[in-house]
Amino acid sequence: MGEIAESMLNGEMCEGCGQWLGEDVGYPQYCSKTCAKDRGMESDPYEEEREIFEAYGFNVRIVNKRHIQLRLEEYEGIFFDWYATTGTLVKNNNGKFSKGVTVKEAEEVAIYIKNDLSGKSNEKQIKLL
Ligand SMILES: [Zn+2]
Question: Which residues have C-beta under 5 Å from ligand 1, the single-atom ion?
Fold first, then answer.
């Protein structure tokens, strides 16, 4: 991948027009609502969810309008895909996917993942396929 494309994907540059935005945040960002809209994104469709996840220490990547990817720095190789419209949560442990469980609210998702990673049990256990 080119350096510019990479800078756009990690949020250093506006993913629409290439304007410099600042440090690498790990997901695409936009300098303005216009740029976001031009690229098919609403301004920040998951502003509220993002705040909740970040408060729990997650790295948040908005993949698209339905799909949010979450990881915690201390757990290398593990990330979670959350499909916000259906509430389906899937764990990816070093390339191994789990079955999905349904977790509807962002805060529940955050707690669910924290429990899962620290070995505490959840009401509906997530199982690797
Ligand atoms: Zn822009």
Answer: 14, 16-17, 19, 31, 35
